[in-house]
Amino acid sequence: MNFESLAKPSVLTQPVYEPGKPIDYVARELGLDAATIVKLASNENPWGPSPRAVAAAKQALEAGELYPDGGCFELRQKLAAKWGLSADQFVIGNGSNEIIELLGHVFVGPGDEVVMGAPAFVVYKLVTLLFGAKAIEVPLLYWRHDLEKIAAAITSRTKLVYVCTPNNPTGTANTGAELVAFVRALPEHVVAVIDEAYAEFVERAPDLRPLIAEGRKLVCLRTFSKIYGLASLRIGYGYASAELCALLNRVRQPFNVNAIAQAAALAALDDDEFAAKTARENRAGLAQLEKGCAKLGLEFVPSVANFMLIKVGDGLRVFEALQRRGLIVRPVKSYGLPEWVRVTVGTPAQNVRLLEELRTATKS
Predict the structure, then answer these.
(1) Chain-wide mean pLDDT for the chain?
(2) Residue 241 in 3-state DSSP?
(3) Which of 150, 153, 155 is closest to 165 using CA atoms?
(4) Contact 264, 223 (CB under 8 A)
């Protein structure tokens, strides 16, 4: 009897998340010098991590023999001050991904439904399937979430509805007015999850806190991975009503966020200069890529996030050609977009190299 015969049947059909390839892996695989490889595949911050966060993380490592604060007390206090909410209105996760899983633990089971856009962040679907529920995917409209059709897809079995804005992988966003109207119209038995992982890149991003104050069933997700450049430390958070956060904390593992990540996140929240620079440089990078793609005759989806979808013909072929040249992007065939690649906005020099390599790769 093998292990598969002992496993739950649902595990054998569970899809597996495919992350972007690390630089060292590509270097070994293709015999390239890792120092010459540029990774523009995973929406990481090309300007590195927040300097204040790095200093705080180094200091925290000196007490590495101690367990972290299991309740993330200081971080929740600081987030509360930043957002004008109470500390018990936050839940801290091992990346915002973990909070998606916590939502599954609390609300989702066999026979339930979870509604989401398509394409959108694939983890919503993976977690839904993991808990034996049905993922109801609603096609985007003009690359944005079709909130009207998402609302129409809700049934008595719906437990959660996900809206990622700006959306991954399209980089598009719904307006604040659209989101407010959508959440206010949801039936009482549905919890809205608004994923704001890329919101810091948006000028005048929607403020959904008034909906929480109204008592709407809503949780918003944020991450330190993107604007603060702390992807390797895996730390994110959700903000919602104290009642909802208490439920999520009931199913959270003890010490789910390490002390180094907590210290870095605390310091990052004070690094407004770094966050502002990242957002400013990102807007310039988007303009650079848009102009370059237009010059190459390549269709693209206008983005407000830190990445862009570019139509290249055979996405997998172009991905492989770029990778052989030491440039890692993300093919999005698994998102139902076989003709496209998703590229992270890089530094000006990295963007120039990407456009130069795209010129060759799309014509070969």
Answers:
(1) 97
(2) coil
(3) 150
(4) no
DSSP 140-207: -BTTB--HHHHHHT--TTEEEEEEESSPTTT-----HHHHHHHHHTS-TT-EEEEE-TTGGGSTT---
pLDDT value for 19: 82
- What angle separates helix 123-130 from helix 96-107, to the nearest 10 degrees? 30
pLDDT at 364 over 80: no
The per-residue DSSP string of 80-120 comes to HHHHTS-GGGEEEESSHHHHHHHHHHHH--TT-EEEEEESS
Residues forming a β-bridge with 158: 113
Sole residue written with tokens 């200069």: 273
Whether the Cβ atoms of residue 354 and residue 60 lie closer than 8 Å to each other? no
* Residue 150: both structure tokens together: 């998402």
> Which of 171, 124, 131, 132 lies closest to 150, judged by CA?
124
Contacts of 253 (CB under 8 A, 6+ apart): none
Look at residue 188 and tell me whether its pLDDT is greater than 70. yes
Residues 69, 267, 166, 196, Cα dihedral to 10°: 30
Q: What is the pLDDT of residue 30?
A: 93
| pLDDT for residue 88 | 98
Taking CA atoms, 32 is separated from 29, 122, 248, 323, in Å, by 8, 30, 44, 10
pLDDT tens-digit series, residues 43-88? 999 999 999 999 999 999 999 999 999 999 999 999 999 999 999 9
